[in-house]
Structure formats: C-alpha cells, structure tokens
Amino acid sequence: MKTRQLLLYLLVPIVFACERNNQGDKNSSSANGVPSDAYIEEEPDPIYSEHIRTTSYQSPEDEKADFVLPPGFEITLFASEPDITKPINMAFDEKGRLWVSQSSEYPIKAGPGKGTDRISILEDSDGDGKADKITDFANDLNIPIGIQPVKGGAIGFSIPNLYRFYDTDGDDIADKREVILGPFETKDTHGMVNNLFRGLDGWIHASHGFSNVSTVAAKDGDSIKMTSGNTFRFTLDGQHAEKTSDGRINPFGSDLDKWGYHYSADCHTLPIYQIIRNGNYTQWGKMEPNMGHAPTMMDYGLNSTALSGLVYYTDTQFPDEYQNSFYSGDVVTCRISRSTISFNGSTPKATRKADFLVSKDPWFRPVDIKIGPDGAMYIADFYNSIIGHYEVPLDHPERDRNSGRIWKITYKGQERTAINWSKANLEVLIEKMRDPVLQNRMMATDELVDRFKDSAIPELKKLIADEKTPNIQKVHALWAIFRLDAMDELALEKALSDHDVLVRVHAQRILGEQQSLNDHKLEWVKMGLVDESAHVKRVAAETLIRQQSPSMLSPIMKAIHATDKKDSHLLYALKYALYQHAQNPQIAKQMATQNWSNQEKEVIALVFSDTRSKTAAEFLVNYLKNNSLPKEKYLPYLTSIARDLPALRMKEIVALAKETGEGIPGFKKAMALNNGAKQQGIDLAPSLKSWNRQLSIDLLQDNSVNGGNKTDEGLERIKYATQLSGILKITQNIGELKKLVNDNQEKEELRIDAANALVEIAPKTEIIYLEKWLKNAESTISFRQKIALAIAKAGSEQSSSLLAKNIKDTPVELQETISEQLATSNSGKEKLLKLIRDGNATARILKARKVEERFHSGASEKQRLAFDELTKNLPPISEEKQALIIERTKAYSKDPAQLDVGKTLFQQNCGICHRIGDDGGMIGPQLDGVGNWGLNALATKVLDPNRNISENFRTYTIKLKSGQAKSGLFRREDGQVLVMADQSGKEFTIPKKDILEQVPSKMTLMPDHFGNVLNQSQFNGLMTYLLSLR
C-alpha cells in the first residue's frame, strides 16, 4: 500500500521504514531462494508505536548493545552527552572535522537573544575513532539546524535567519556574523531551513521545511517565496537566491549522484525524489495542474512516519553490495533503511532492500546521516523518549533535552584515514579530482577553487584539453573553471560534444548555469535535446525550463514526441519547459499561431490549459471547436477558457460549451465554467446564470419524476442542482428541495445541501420549516447538527432565537453545535448565558473548546465575567478528555470480527476528509500505515483532536468587509479567491477583495465530539480497523 501523508508531524521527514532482515552477500540467497538483502515485509515491533517510549534511558554503552548490523560492519560511539547535546544536522569540513548543530531548546524556540543552542566542531585528533577535541563554534543560537562549513567559518541557520559566521582569528570560535538570507517564518520549528550542502555549482543548496511560509530576499533584491516544502540555493555571500523546486511537505535530507542529480527526502508524500530543476511538486492543498505534478521515483510506500538524513553512498569502504545505495534514518521505527536505484532513460527507480541497521532501543532517533571523508557512516542520534512534534505537547516534561549521540559505522578491515584537504597542494587536489569517491572529488574541487583561485586555471585548462584525462576528472575540472569564471566558449563546446556521456551531461549543466544564452549557445542546448543519452536530453530540457527562446519551441516539441513514455522525468521536464515558454507573452503568441500537427496541438493545448493568458484561452477555444476530447481534458480546458477570457465574452463561451463536448452532461460543462469564473474572481455573467438556472430547474424536476439516479454522476448532478438553487436563489425549486430534505432514504449530504439552499433562497420562512428537522429525535444526531448549521447561516436574530429555544433537552453534541453558533454574535452570547442560568443547557457547554474560543472572541467584559462565574467550578476540559481516553483504552478489546464495523464507522465519520489508499477525501492527512501509532496515540487523536494541532491543519476565522465571518481550513489561493474547507470537508471560496482580517484559531477542523458520538463498542470497532492499517 502506498504511504502518503500521515498524522505525524515530526522533526524530520519520511524516507524509509522496514523490518530488519538477515543480510549477507549481494548474490547469496536464503533457503527459499530469496536474495538475502531483499526486503521482506513483517509486522513492526509494538515498541516503536509509542509516542512516549515507556522504556528507560540507556547509557551510550547499553544503547550500542541494542544495534543490529549486517555481518562485517561495526558501530562505535563518536561523541555523546555531556560533550554534545541534541544533534540535528552534520557536515564535514576540509580538515575532516565534523560540524554539528545541536539544540536543547527544540521544539520550543527561545525568545530573541535568549538562545543557548550551539554549533560545535568535533575532531578525532588521535585517530582512535572518537572525538577528543570539541569546540563550540557558536553557543548563543536558537534551534540551529542546517550547517555548512566554508572557508573562514560556516553558514548556518538559527531562528530566524541564515547566517554567515566568521572566524577572523582562526581559533575555531565565531567572532562575527551577518545575515545572508532571512528572516524565515518559524511558527513551526521542526523543519525550518535544513540540510545545507555545497553543490557542483558552488552555491549552497538547502531545504525549506514543514508548514512555514517564507518570503526572503537576497542582497540583489530578488525575493523567493516558499510555502512548506521547497528546495532552494543561494550564493555564499547571499548576493543571489533561487528556488530549485516548488512543493512537497517537509524535505529533510539531500544528496547528489555522479550525474549531478539532486535527491531529496520528503515527509508525508514519498521518501525519495530525484528533483527536476524548478519542478512543480505535489503539496497539501495544492491544485494539481492539468499536466500533472512532477513525477516520483518509487512505487512503494513505507510503513513509517518520519525519516531523515538521506545519503547516497558512493564511497568504497563498504562492500560492493552496499555501495551506490540510499540510506536513511527512521526516527520512529529506530533504524537505517536502504534502497538501490536503476534507470529507465533518465528516470530513476528505487528498489527497497533489507534494513541496514535496527536498534532495539526505541529512544534511538537517527535524525541525520552523513558519509565521512574516511568512508564511514556517521549518524546523529537525537536520543529521546519523544520525537513527535504534534502528537505530544511541545512542553511535555519527558522530552529529553540533554542526551545526544553520534555513531560511526565502518566495515571491519576497510577503515582509512581522512584526508586533510586544507594541507593538500594544487597537484594533490587536481589528482584527487579523479578519485573514485564523488565526495572526495567535490571536496577537492571546492578546496582548489577556494584556496588556489585563479592560479589553478592553467593546470585546469590543461586537464580539459587533454584527451587522456579521465572523464570524472574532466567533469570536476570543467566545474572548477566555470566557478572561477574562466570558461571559454571553445572549451565548453568541445566538452558538449565529448565522446563520454558523463562529460556531456555536466557540460550541459554548466551551459544551463549561464545567465543568458545567445543564439549560438541555444544551438548547443538544441544539440543536447537530440543526444543519444537520455541524461543529456534531460539536462538540456531543464535548462529550457529556466531559459526561454522562441527558437526552441520546435526542438522541444520534437523531443517530447521522441521520448519513451516510460521516461517520466524527461517527459515532464520537456513539457514543463514548454509550459515555461508559454509564460512569455510573445513566445505564447508564436506557440498559438505556429503550424503544428494535430499531435503537436494536443501538447500545446495541455500546456496552455495551465497557462493564465488570453492568448492561451483563445487557442483553447479554437481547439475545442475543432477537436473531440474526452471529458477528462475537455472540462479542465473549458475552465481555463472561462478563467482567462474577459467576462464580456461569457455569452460566447456558454455557446461554445453547448455546441461542443458531445456526450458530456450540460451541468458538468456549467460547473467547469463556474469554476473558471470563480478563479477569475468575477460574478457569474447573465448568460451563465441563465444556463445554470435552467439546468438546476430541469435536473431537480427530472429527479422528482424519475426517482433520482444513484450513480456517482447522478448524485453529482443533484448536488449541483441543489447548490445552484441556493446560489442563484431559484424560488421555483423550493418544492423540489423540500422533497429532498424530507426523503429519509436520500443521502444525508444531499438532504443538507437542499436545506442550505432553502436558507439561501428564503431564510425567514425556510428556517421555520427546517425547525421540525432540528427537533426530530428520530433523525441522526449528525443530521440534526447539520440542520442547526444550515439555520445558523441565515445570520439573523430570528435564526439565533430559533436555535436558542431548541437547545433544551437535546443531546449534548447537538447542544454544543448550537452553542458554537450562538457564541459567534453578541446577542447569541447573551442568549447562551441565559440558557445556562435558566437550566436549559449545561455550563460544561461553555468549556467546549470551539464554544469557548468563539465566545471570548469579541465578548464584553461583562460577558467574560459571567462566563467565568458559570464555569468556575468545572474541571479543565483536558482532564475530562484524558479520563475518557483512559476509560476507553482500558475497556478496549481487539476483535477481528469488528473490522468491517470499524471500516464503516470510518467511512461515515472520517472518510470525507481522510484518505486510505485511493479512497476518501484529501482535506486532512492521509492515514496509510496509521496503525503503527498504537492504541493510545490513535485514541488521543480521535477523542481529543485539539490537543496538539499541526499548523497545516489549523482553522482560520475570516472576517469579511460585509461584517460576516466564515471559518475553515486554508487550502490554497486560486486566482482571485481563497479556497477553504469547512467541517464537513467541503471546499468553499472567499474572494480576496472581500476579506478584512484572517484570525488563526486554536482549533483543528476535526470534530471534537467523538467521545459522545461513539459508544465503547463503536470505539472498539474503529480502533480495531485503524490499528489494522500498517
């Protein structure tokens, strides 16, 4: 089952999780013929499911005894408390020393100027395998994460900035610092800016972590905006900064391969991505483009919830079968996982292997992994009984703030001494640029550029001119010359046509780094698009994502049609390059008018459907007139037309929709046009209103006559008709809408849609009609709650009074829903207080979290005093919730026979927002593998959902200029509107121009009533089902 986003939001993101298996030689097999390094799925040990580990702290010596490794490997302690605290990120410098960022503040940031965290330099000066010299480079930091040593100091992140730290006197202590990029948003502290590394290009590359939205400007004034997961790069002086990808959730781990591909780990989507430069990746709340998000490189998920420290091992110390493998630390199931890679053209495919290391100590938290210059694997162990960021309160007393270890794994008999690059002369550095280990080649290149600068150029030019120079050495010589700004066109042209594919790939990468490409250089890119190697084509395509020219349209198109569909990464890069060309108005005009074949027009239409321009929309109009398309393409294209053509042309667009798209229902076409108008931020034009009105009337009448169609399309049709009835206030439909509400056999969702429509059409009269359903004790509580919400939408004194008079003698969860609505207005607050004083509602209602929050928002001093008086003797709600959790879990008994009952309960109560596999909604986190949490954690999340809230799932109250207020979960910006989701999981939009203020809530969107809704038997069924999802 594919693992997607889970309910755990941790310090680090996902990469791998699997059970430890016996391992041996690469080609050996077990008795059953299965290769001994193959992954075999097993049930994870329950000790890894506890959010707060119940085992005891162990000393480093005792923890070491709990590690299991393949034969021949050895693990030793490199450093531990009290010499270090909680390690987060690591990096090696040119002297072979290990730099470590550490935090005892995490996860609660210190106030400005009050940080006590540090970056330390660890050195094994006597060669015994353990750090014996530890220097605190900086010790006044605030949750430092990303760290990269550079000449004369380091670049590192500490809330809220990326700093350049200078050591001006050579004592290994920072005595000067400057902000080179920032401030970054840090409302969420468990990702922030992490895993810095220096690329082949000489820039510092970094990951931007979970939830935060940061807009930062480099010294040149250009700014970049990053929402949650992104990757970016910046120059060492902070002069320039660029995004290198957009999307994903919480990247935490990066590495490169020999081709120069950047691999990145991510939490909540998939464990490893090979990043397509500037690619558009999936992300919560992000609308998928018609051309799709950037592709993935793995077709399997992993049963864990937080992995980190991605490394690609290219060293030679480990045996052959363990080389060229990805390794990642799993901080939940306490292991280091391994995968190998193969290529289909330029597209990588990961294959899961048996775990490399497993710890039986559940406090082991491998948050980062780095391969040292000695070929050993170094592991940062954030040793702790708690790692969860949102599953456990941030200030929980059992969070360990002092213990931390760094472990070192070697293969016995293959240990070697690290090179001190700072003492290597130019001859040695040039020689090491042909070292078989990629990391050594990169370190030699950095040292040569940083220390020898222009004096190295003559020797470098000799290397690239010599036909006998090994390909790997020539590659790094080319990069060094480029970084020293000494690359002449003849040398680059020669490299671009080199007989060796690796040289051609990197020559194309260097070409792509040029700030602008003249016609001559564009011919070189064009040459790359027809290279025999898919890797060369891929790099050329990525260059054209960033640099556009009308002369490249036909070459890109030809390359698209020449590419094997199995090479998803190359195909996406080419199409995305065409998309980026379409963003240039002049090039877009040429795209629209060029003489394309039918096959080529199909590609142009796809790209234009994601392009917001009048030119693109005009092309799509003609395309729809002349081509018959399946609804999967036709409807999105129709939306694009309505989004991008002027509203004055809507009559023409409606006519187009009626005349084209044979076989596609009219209501679906109207929905597509409505969506486009909404994205443009305009009201429905008269012609579109008229069509929607007639469709709604006809569909409801047809439903009444024919008894309705229970297919998915039939339900969608009636849903459309009811919603449009309300939006357009179609009084003619009131009778049909009441029939829907009255039909007990109809789906609850449709009945409520009809009720909402009635209130929109005629609130004064229809809330009186709905009152009977509010009082109907035979209806489900869920239905009555939603009727209460529908009545509240009238927003009048009448509706407030109606709700108030119906609160007495109703179930507590319905009382809570009514109270939430009353608490939003001043008069409603007064009514609520009176109801409680008169004994018609319990005072406990006031302490329901959403009621309390809404009541205090805008309450007068007199109302606050009354609130306090009525609730002064009540125990805190958290104590009641905890008592309920203990009661329910104590009484829980696993019964496989209840699996189907639990699945049904999930679908009824949770499935509208949460997805498992391919079923369910995408409003909340996906729950594949959630059974690994264990009973206590799942019970807490279900029975007390507001205990620990992820910022990505915090709701907002939107105050409108009209005086109204709306509440919901932010999903995305879509043109001129904000897209939100309400408590039923439905998305709704708010025009940006109507917004006065956005106020964050302390509540999540998840209902807080399951303690009342589910009895013990139903709770047992739901838990049995959720715990089965591993």
TrEMBL record:
Q: Where is this region: Disordered?
A: 22-45
The superkingdom listed in its UniProt entry is Bacteria
Q: Which PROSITE patterns does the UniProt entry name for this protein?
A: CYTC (PS51007), PROKAR_LIPOPROTEIN (PS51257)
Q: Does the keyword Transmembrane apply?
A: no
- The segment(s) forming the Cytochrome c domain are 897-1030
Q: Which GO terms describe its molecular function?
A: electron transfer activity; heme binding; metal ion binding
Query: Which Pfam families does the record match to this protein?
Result: Cytochrom_C, DUF7133
Keyword list (alphabetical) reads: Heme, Iron, Metal-binding
> Compositional bias of type Polar residues: which residue ranges?
22-33
InterPro entries for the chain:
6-blade_b-propeller_TolB-like, ARM-like, ARM-type_fold, Cyt_c-like_dom, Cyt_c-like_dom_sf, DUF7133, Haem-bd_dom_put, Membrane-bound_put_N
Identify the PANTHER family for this entry. Answer: LARGE, MULTIFUNCTIONAL SECRETED PROTEIN, LARGE, MULTIFUNCTIONAL SECRETED PROTEIN-RELATED
Q: What is this protein called?
A: Membrane-bound dehydrogenase domain protein
| Source organism (scientific name) | Cyclobacterium amurskyense
What lineage does UniProt assign to this protein's organism? Bacteria, Pseudomonadati, Bacteroidota, Cytophagia, Cytophagales
